[in-house]
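User: Here's a structure from my thesis project, written as structure tokens. My advisor, Dr. K., wants to see whether a designed sequence matches the one we expressed. Can you design one independently, without my sequence as a hint?
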């Protein structure tokens, strides 16, 4: 009897400890990157982040900073009305251009609807067009000119890694109150070639409307091989509160469903294309008198091996403040780190931008994270700036040429400038001695 009782006590203790560990085991480290800003997108070539913030009149405007959130400056264009919303959507990989959504200036008379500023708020999509602006704001080009009415506008864009394709969701019907399917409006997904030149343009090559049905179709990213779009849709569920994630093959138009949980959105390919980070309300606690939030999850690009990577909506978890948090769209800085929007209120765009570091396995502590880094400018002539992403200690940086020959070793710290003027023109690779798998390519001109 004593042995059985002892065994039961041991078993109960183990179960209790296991339960405690499972609640607090983390698969990411989340820090606030910048408060009261949203929609942050990072550009590798220039180490520049673009994001949105409300001005004193309640209109969203575009700002730029470096990847640490420093050296902030506004980005605008004289041809844009200052009392209209402006939103940064995607960088061209070169960093020379930023794709933006800009609210139309004129308030046209409409039957059945009176326009208000919130109609064109980022993420709502009404009365907006796609623009392209230079990073210094010296020039801008209007790329679309949709009808100026409540049925038309744009949301959610995606840029291919090679800079050849830009895609977006185009609104074709205004939101319909009390219609679960069309409560956010109906959208088609457009994919266009980006044509650079003195007057940059886009040329639509595909328009996708799953099932040929009116539905919410919100695309998020393009696969690195330019063959696949990721998106969420209500074309099967007909319910904006039930939004599975899908991919569509742009060549065959074959659609594959990747999630079955009721609420999932924003599927973003990792830079290597092997996985998605997405947001979902799956397994989120609902706090008293609040609605369900969402956390970030990770899955393979075929929808397998789903893993929760944030725990902001778990009661008493170290990542939680025991209040509603909605994980939003993200911008990768590497395969294992990204900037992501966190909404603190269910309506509007109230919140902050978080920096998320995905840990190799659950339970790895901060001291064991492999250091990652960014570099800029790329291409470059004489100088290359190295910025360590999660470490202020000195690290040994190695430079290899395209044949694998070690060309230089140098110690770098949080921000370091190194001379590469002596290197012949060509392609080179950088890696940190402590993290050789995280390599970055640059071009010496």
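Assistant: Designed independently from the structure alone:
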């Amino acid at each position: 009897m004593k042995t059985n009782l002892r065994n039961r006590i041991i078993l109960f203790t183990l179960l209790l400890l296991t339960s405690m560990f499972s609640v607090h085991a983390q698969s990411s480290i989340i820090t606030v990157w910048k408060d009261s800003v949203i929609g942050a997108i990072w550009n590798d070539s220039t180490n520049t982040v673009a994001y949105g913030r409300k001005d004193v009149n309640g209109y969203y405007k575009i700002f730029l900073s470096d990847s640490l959130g420093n050296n902030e400056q506004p980005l605008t264009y004289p041809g844009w009305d200052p009392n209209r919303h402006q939103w940064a959507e995607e960088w061209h990989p070169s960093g020379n251009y930023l794709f933006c959504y800009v609210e139309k200036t004129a308030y046209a008379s409409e039957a059945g609807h009176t326009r208000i500023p919130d109609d064109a708020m980022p993420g709502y999509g009404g009365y907006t067009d796609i623009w392209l602006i230079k990073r210094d704001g010296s020039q801008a080009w209007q790329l679309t000119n949709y009808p100026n009415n409540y049925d038309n506008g744009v949301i959610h864009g995606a840029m291919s890694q090679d800079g050849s394709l830009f895609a977006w969701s185009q609104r074709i019907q205004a939101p319909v109150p009390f219609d679960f399917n069309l409560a956010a409006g109906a959208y088609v997904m457009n994919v266009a070639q980006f044509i650079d030149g003195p007057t940059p343009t886009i040329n639509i090559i595909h328009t996708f409307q799953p099932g040929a049905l009116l539905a919410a179709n919100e695309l998020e990213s393009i696969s690195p091989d330019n063959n696949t779009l990721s998106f969420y849709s209500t074309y099967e569920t007909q319910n904006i509160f039930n939004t599975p994630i899908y991919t569509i093959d742009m060549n065959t138009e074959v659609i594959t469903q990747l999630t079955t949980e009721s609420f999932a959105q924003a599927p973003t390919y990792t830079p290597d294309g092997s996985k998605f980070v997405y947001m979902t309300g799956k397994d989120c606690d609902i706090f008293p008198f609040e609605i369900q939030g969402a956390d970030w999850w990770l899955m393979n690009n075929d929808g397998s091996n789903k893993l929760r990577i944030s725990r902001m909506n778990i009661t008493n978890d170290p990542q939680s403040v025991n209040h509603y948090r909605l994980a939003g769209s993200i911008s990768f800085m590497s395969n294992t780190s990204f900037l992501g929007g966190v909404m603190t209120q269910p309506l509007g765009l109230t919140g902050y931008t978080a920096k998320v570091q995905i840990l190799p396995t659950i339970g790895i502590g901060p001291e064991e994270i492999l250091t990652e880094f960014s570099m800029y400018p790329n291409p470059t002539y004489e100088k290359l700036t190295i910025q360590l992403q999660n470490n202020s200690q000195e690290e040994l940086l190695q430079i290899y040429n395209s044949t694998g020959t070690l060309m230089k070793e140098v110690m770098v710290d949080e921000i370091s400038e190194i001379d590469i003027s002596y290197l012949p023109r060509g392609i080179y690779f950088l890696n940190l001695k402590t993290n050789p798998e995280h390599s970055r390519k640059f071009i010496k001109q």
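When you compare it with your expressed construct, this may help: The CA atoms of residues 221 and 299 lie 15 Å apart.
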